[in-house]
Amino acid sequence: MGAGTPAAVDFAVGTFDDLTLVVRAQEGDVRAFEALVRRYQRRFYRLAVRLLGNSSDAEEAVQDAFLSAWRRLPGFRGEAAFSSWMYRIVTNRCLLLLRKRRPVTTLDELRDQPGPESASPEHAAETRDRAVALQRALLDLPTDQRACWILRELHGLGYEDIATIVAASPDAVRGRLHRARRTLAEVMAPWR
Amino acid sequence: MAVNGTHVQPEHAQLACGRDAAVAWDAAVAGRRDAHQRACPHCQAVAEDQRLLASAVAELHEEALEPPASLVEQVMGAVFAEIRPAGYLPLPTRHGRARIDRVAAAGVLRHAVDRMPAVRVRSCQIHLVDPPGPDDATQGTPPVRVRISVTARFGLDLISATARVRQMILAAAADLLGLSVTAIDIDVVDVHDDPSWAPAGADAPS
pLDDT-derived band of residue A106, with 50, 70 and 90 as boundaries? Predict the structure, then answer.
């Protein structure tokens, strides 16, 4: 297929930088927005599953967040990166859902998913159980601590970025992280 | 955690030794603890917590959590349902009024330029030079001005590239839309890398 065919052009759009895709989406190019959704769906789905504890709520939250981003794109001025802006939208959407409902901590579905390759079935089961125990402990944390911990430990964001996302000071973020880490370490102590 | 009373202020992450718990944690992650952190029981306790959680955190990282295949489709279905016309451009016709959505028309021009391998369209807008009156439907082709911004592959000859962009827009506007373009403003706003591109004559990987 040549570089100029429609399919090749659509594929090429998927490789464009975020800013180019955002500007095009702001001008009504839905394919550019679709490229952004495809690029970030996995990252934000994983964030939502960890925050909410189940896949159906996570799917709903991520869908709502992307739709909200589409509606708010005209007001997006690009002071922050698109991904930082989306982190804020997805996290807030999840926190809103958590405030509205009692969290449904159906960990069976997480337990059923394949884990990493391991040397033996026993080791695999232990590894799996440890990850499930941590996820369970995570869901028992207060939501503000949970959000900070996930953004830091699983998404590798800096304190300033997390502070912007959760609308708190960097000091408050560090405090929440410290308390979350202490609680998780206590819960995970039997796995030492 | 071996030490009680490790944190002394509820809102801040200060350890009883006065050190910031987040700093102690990050030092443990990086394996770069200073002399105080190696000797202090509070900092040691933080490092111990970090070691304890590290493997479980790595396991959560590796867990296969894939979004459902329908997610993109669901989002885009909702997006398409919300699309509203952004204004129209009149099209030349001898048999009554015809018009095209401004976003769709810009999309046609954008798509034409996207076919160039070394150029990426960022913004593309079409403006009527003289908006026609209500009785102008059977008049000639409405003149428009196109404003386009692009990024170019690093090292591209920008003079010939912008000339080619101009050519593509003129051709697409005339042949596909029937619009008469009186002016084209082109901004090259950035350069980009293209790892898939190799200059002519470069050795192919063996």
Answer: low
Residue B148 CA to residue B166 CA, distance in Å, equals: 10
Distance between first and last Cα of chain A: 55
Contact at 8 Å (CB) between A182 and A168? Answer: no
Tell whether A185 is within 8 A of chain B (Cβ).
Answer: yes
ipTM greater than 0.85, yes or no?
Answer: no
pLDDT per position as a tens digit, A3-12: 456 566 566 8
Which of A27, A42, A113 comes nearest B123 by C-beta? A27
Two structure tokens written together for A162 = 């997390």
Residue B138 has pLDDT above 80, yes or no: no
Using alpha carbons, list the distances in angstroms from residue A59 to A18, A51, A71: 23, 12, 19
| Residue at token pair 């102690």 | B24
**Cβ partners under 8 Å of residue B160, min gap 6:** none
CB contact under 8 A, B7 and A182: yes
A68 touches chain B (CB under 8 A): no
DSSP B203: P
Residue A179: the pLDDT is 94
Report the C-alpha gap between B36 and A177 in whole angstroms: 22
Q: Which residue has the tokens 């394996």?
A: B31
Contacts of A187 (CB under 8 A, 6+ apart): A133, A134, A137, A140
Whole-number Å distance between alpha carbons of B22 and A173: 10
Query: Which span out of A85-89, A106-110, B92-96, B176-180 was modeled with the highest average pLDDT?
Result: A85-89
E strand segments, chain B: 88-91, 98-101, 119-128, 143-153, 180-192
Spell out which residues of chain B touch residue A35, defining contact as CB-CB under 8 Å: none
> What local confidence, expressed as pLDDT, does residue B7 receive?
43
- What is the rounded distance in angstroms from the CA atom of residue A107 to the CA atom of residue B98? 58
pTM: 0.84
A14 — contact with chain B (CB < 8 Å)? Answer: no
CA separation, residue A79 to residues A83, A147, B34 (Å): 12, 23, 37
**What is the per-residue pLDDT for B195?**
72
